[in-house]
Amino acid sequence: QVQLVESGGGLVQAGGSLRLSCAASGSALSINNMAWYRQAPGKQRELVAKITRGGSTNYADSVKGRFTISRDNAKQTVYLQMNSLEPEDTAVYYCYAEYLTLSTNWGMKWGQGTQVTVSS
Question: Would you say 20 and 114 are in contact if contact means Cβ atoms under 8 Å apart?
Fold first, then answer.
C-alpha cells in the first residue's frame, strides 16, 4: 500500500507563495497519476491540478497561470507551486495518487490533507 506524506501548507498573505510537497512511499510497481485537490469549508472537493507520470498536466481554470504542478519520479514526489495566492485559495489541500500494486492491480490513495490559509 502506498502512503502519501504532505508538507508545505501554512498561512500566507494574499499575493504570497507556497509550495506543497507530497511524497509517496510503500510497495508499488509504479506511481502513475498524481493530483492535488482542495476543499474549502462548505464546498465540495475540487480538482486543482493533476499530472501523469509522463508529465502531462491539467489545471482548474481558477488556478491556471498561478499554480504549477510538477513531479520527481525518482523521489516519487509531487509538488504544487502556488503563486499569487488569493483568499479564495484557502482550503484543505489533498494529495492524490494512483498506482500499480505489486499484484498488478490499480490502487489509489488520498493524503490526509494540509491546510492552506491565505489572509487578505
Answer: yes
